[in-house]
TrEMBL record:
It comes from Comamonas avium. Residues 9-69, 77-133 form the CBS domain. PROSITE patterns: CBS. Keywords: CBS domain. This is CBS domain-containing protein. The keyword S-adenosyl-L-methionine does not apply.
């Protein structure tokens, strides 16, 4: 079973992009576009204060006719952020994301330090790789090459 630590190691770049609660949504959108990502953590004084996504923008700014330049991130971010640890499995993360209908999970260590961020895309990629390994093992077994 693949662990979150393995996923982070595979991703390589440990950069987690973030904004501050008082940053404008325009700043957040510009950062998401620049880094080609769908969500940003909201960090205040080295602590996760929330998470904000393109979906938040679409539903809480665009559809309500608000202005992204005048709206601070804190007004639309999700403040209650679910986190996982490096020892959680990909299956546990997938179940949590499915249950909560979320697409991103921050990864925190024992001292609550931020280790990274995993997305539903990371989990799908991991699941597909795990399935390919299982298929290869089964094909090897069925062909009798194990004897």
């Amino acid at each position: 079973m693949t662990k979150v630590a393995d996923i982070l190691r595979t991703k390589g770049n440990a950069t987690v992009h973030a904004v501050k609660p008082d940053d404008s949504m325009l700043t957040a959108l510009q950062q998401m576009a620049e880094h080609e990502i769908g969500a940003l953590l909201v960090i205040q004084e080295r602590t996760i204060a929330g998470i904000v996504s393109e979906r938040d923008y679409a539903r809480k700014i665009a559809l309500k006719g608000r202005n992204s330049l005048d709206t601070p991130v804190r007004e639309i971010m999700t403040a209650h952020v679910h986190c996982v640890g490096p020892d959680n499995t990909s299956d546990e993360c997938m179940a949590l994301m499915t249950q909560l209908k979320i697409r991103h999970l921050p990864v925190v260590g024992a001292d609550h330090e931020l280790l990274g961020l995993i997305s539903i895309g990371d989990l799908i990629k991991t699941t597909l790789a795990d399935q390919q390994v299982t298929i290869a093992h089964l094909e090897h077994y069925i062909s009798g090459a194990h004897r």
